[in-house]
Structures are given as structure tokens and as C-alpha cells.
Sequence to fold (433 residues):
Amino acid sequence: MPHRTAARTAKLASLPLGIAGRAVSGWGRRLTGQSAEQVNATLSAKAAEQLFEVLGTLKGGAMKFGQALSVFEAAVPDEFAGPYREALTKLQSAAPPMPTRQTHRVLAEQLGRSWKDRFAEFSDEPAAAASIGQVHHAVWHDGREVAVKVQYPGADQALRSDLRQLQRFSRLLQALAPGTEIKPLLAELSDRMNEELDYRTEAENQRQFAKAFAGDQQVLVPRVVASAPKVVVTEWVTGTPLAKIISDGTVGQRNEAGRLLAEFHYSSPARANLLHSDPHPGNFMLLEDGRLCVIDFGAVARLPHGAPSALGVIMRLALEGRSDELLDVLKREGFVRPGTTVDAEDIQAYLAPFTVPLTRERFHFTRRWAQKQALRLGDTRGQDFRTARSLNLPPQWLMIHRVTAGAVGILCQLDAELELRSIVQQWQPGFAA
Fold:
């Protein structure tokens, strides 16, 4: 894994340079008689291939960025999204593996030289890959099937290098979102991502979730078997990945997966005082018994008092059209910076489309709906774009926002229809008057 700043920056820079180079060659092929459709299809496929290769090889924060993108591809128009959808989906659970010798070295360092004695069987071929580690299928010494997540050597340096790059780009990011205070957000993001480097923290998070959902009829959280700073061993679970259901699941599977996902996210703060904060399809599976299996607890928001009631109040006021009260709450929570002038009616108009799923008994989340919201917010000539530039995302709301946006992205990928309002009414404090 390249972890020096110069090497990683060069790799990331190769993405726009490669795309530019292919554009030039594509222009040449147009001159030789190839159609625009043929050229664009070829360029998109090659750009997507490079995207997977670069982000997958870099892993760390760069791959995390790619995994985050994979959730929001539902908002990309279909005529452009095809090749990227496939490449980004691959990043959810697959990346170039590290050599077996390196894997064994990390296991020996973390579990001791006699680490093999702790397993009855151990597969050297990775079963899956994540942003900072890869997963192996094994059998524990007592006969239990287990998943062994091993952190990539150099993952810590690579992740911190990516975070430093983000800090360097803070001025650019500030220009793109002038209303948002970028530096506190980056500091919060850095703290949360640094926590993911110690698998002991992830193991403790998973233990807390597993205890909260023990015996649950809808959600399964695998139990932790053993943990170390760079290795975590958990129970092995076999199921249908959400990515598979997104690609070719039945209507019933899509709707049920969406319902279970929404139930899990909205109930977790009340049941576990935690919020699973890495919402991409690679972290969820549908089991044969109908339960949703949830994995990867490295990114977690700690909510000792449950979900903030202000979120429910904001939802309710936006639904009821009480724009002046809504603006007051947003100011109090830090969503509007002091001294910023913003019209209450503009805020209401900006948020209203997001509350549509809560206005109906059942709502159908579709790619078309996601694309419509993306076009609305991206229209530089529209009022909603100007309103967005007046808003701020407080650091304490970063992970909640990430989960809410990411979960909606997955629901749109699933094309799921569900009774979201009843779930919110049951679990979200402040929503019921």
C-alpha cells in the first residue's frame, strides 16, 4: 500500500490526468469515423476501470471516499452511471488483496507467533476487502466459523496521509461550500476515521450492538470472538449481500431489505446508544431467515442520550410548514451561521422535498427521485442552490447526516417501497408533537 504523501497524491492525480488523456484519444477516434456513442462508452468504461484500480490500490481514506460515492450513484443520471456503478459497487466488498506472507506477518504480530493454533482452519484467500483491511474465512479452534479482518500494513499512515490531503484542500472545499465551516467538519471526520484504525474500538462497538440486538427477530449482529489493534475475529455469517439484491433482487426482497435497514438505523440510538455510521451496501446482508445482518462497526456515532430530539422537531416543523419556527431551531442547532441572512420561506422550500417520504403512508424510493433532488440542489441558477450556500453542517451532526443521506441513497438503489413515517414515529424523538 503506498502511504507516503507524494506517492498517494500522484496516484490520486492520475485520475483526472487519465480521464483527460482518454478524452484526447477519444477526440482522435472521432476524427477516424467512430460515433460519439461508441467513443463515450469506451471512455466511460476505461475511466471506471481506472477509478476502481486507483481507489482500490490506495485503500485508506481514498477507498473510503469511493465507498461513499457508491451509495450516491443512485443520483447520477442512468446514461452516465452504468460503468461507474459497477466499479464503485466493487469497492464495497472487493479490492486488490495483500500478499499471503504479509497477512501472516500481521496475524503473528497481533495474535502471537502461534496464531495458527487458535484456528482449526484458515483460508489464505481473502473472502472480501474493505477500506483498511481484508477479511478471511476461518474456523476457530472450537469449531465455530469465523470472519478474520486483518488490517493492511501501512493503513494507518495511508489514512492519515489522506486526512492531511483533505486538510490541505480545505480552502478549495470552502470555496465550493462557502456557507459551511469546513475546518471543524474535517477535524470531526479526522477523529472518527482515526478511531477506525484500532480494531479493539470496533470490536467494543460491535459487542455493544450485538448485546442490544441479541435475540432480535429482524437484525443479526455477529458476536466478537477475539480482537487486537489490527485484527478482529467475529462469527461468520452467510447471506445475500445488499449489492446482489440491488442488482437482481425481487420486489419483495427490495422492499423488505429497505424496511429492515430503516428500522435498524432509526432504532439503534434508542436500543444501543450508538449509530452505525458506514452505510454502504457492502455492510449489510439479507439472511435466509429474513433478518438483516449488519457488519463493520469501525465508524460509529456515540449517542448516550439517543437520537437528538432536534432532528425530529426539524422533520415535524418542515412537514407542517412552520417555517419561522423551523428557522429558529436550525439557528439554535448551528445549521445557520450567526450573522447569515436567510429567508424562512426559502429554508422551508429547500427542505420540503426531503420530507416528502414522510408525507405518505408508504413511499417509493427510486433513482428518479434521487436524481431529481440532485438536479434541484445542483442547479446554480435556482434558489435552492443559493439557500444551501447559506447553511452550515455542525460537526456534531456530521455522522448523523452521513447516515441519513447514505441510507436514503441505499433505499433509492434498492427501489424500495416502505412505511418510513411509521418507523420514524416509533423511534425518532421529537417527531411526534
